[in-house]
């Protein structure tokens, strides 16, 4: 009798916790994705938007777009280009650009991962994280 009285509220608490968890509908992966994107937006605004613009559409013939860019198909190149910059020329969506993009050595591996996650979720049709663990070996391979 006494044991029952104790077990009942514990069972209710567990049931309530399970219910709340399933209602919140946010997996750990989704929470991580949102965190990367939120940070990525800030890194983008502070380091990239000047040239590529907040909407990612670039600026005339000077700065190529990231939104809808066919260059995004080469993610490893994008990761390396962010850290080490790029000496022109480059072709994006059939248009030729020919200006140097400055290297961004101030960005950490994690910031590059957050940035790439933001860019690909916002403008590259992805709905997943590009984890810093994926970015590290790519940066290692193109290290200068
Ligand atoms: C000073 C202006 C400038 C800044 C700041 C800058 N870029 Fe660029 N970016 C360029 C130019 C110019 C090119 C084209 C380079 C060429 O002609 O070879 C380019 C090319 C690119 C490309 C490949 C082409 C494309 O449009 O898909 C990507 C991706 C890119 N930049 C991402 C970034 C990211 C991310 C940042 C922020 C960390 C950044 N850039 C900061 C000027 C800039």
TrEMBL record:
Keywords tagged on the record: Heme, Iron, Metal-binding, Signal
Pfam families: Cytochrom_C
Residues passing through the membrane, by range: none
Signal sequence residues: 1-27
SUPFAM superfamilies from the UniProt entry: Cytochrome c
PROSITE patterns named in the record: CYTC
One function term, GO molecular function aspect: electron transfer activity
Residue ranges occupied by any Cytochrome c domain in the UniProt entry: 35-123
Matching InterPro entries: Cyt_c-like_dom, Cyt_c-like_dom_sf, Cytochrome_c-type_DH
Protein name per its UniProtKB record: Cytochrome C
Organism annotation: Spirosoma montaniterrae
């Amino acid at each position: 009798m006494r044991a029952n009285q104790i077990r009942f509220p514990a069972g209710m608490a567990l049931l309530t916790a399970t219910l709340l968890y399933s209602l919140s509908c946010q997996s750990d992966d989704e929470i991580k994705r949102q965190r990367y994107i939120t940070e990525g937006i800030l890194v983008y605004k502070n380091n990239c938007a000047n040239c590529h613009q907040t909407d990612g559409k670039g600026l005339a013939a000077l700065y190529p777009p990231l939104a809808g860019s066919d260059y995004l198909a080469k993610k490893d190149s994008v990761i390396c280009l962010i850290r080490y910059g790029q000496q022109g020329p480059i072709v994006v969506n059939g248009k030729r650009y020919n200006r140097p993009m400055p290297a961004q050595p101030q960005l950490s591996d994690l910031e590059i991962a957050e940035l790439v996650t933001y860019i690909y979720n916002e403008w590259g049709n992805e709905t997943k994280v590009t984890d810093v663990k994926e970015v590290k070996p790519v940066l290692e391979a193109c290290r200068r």
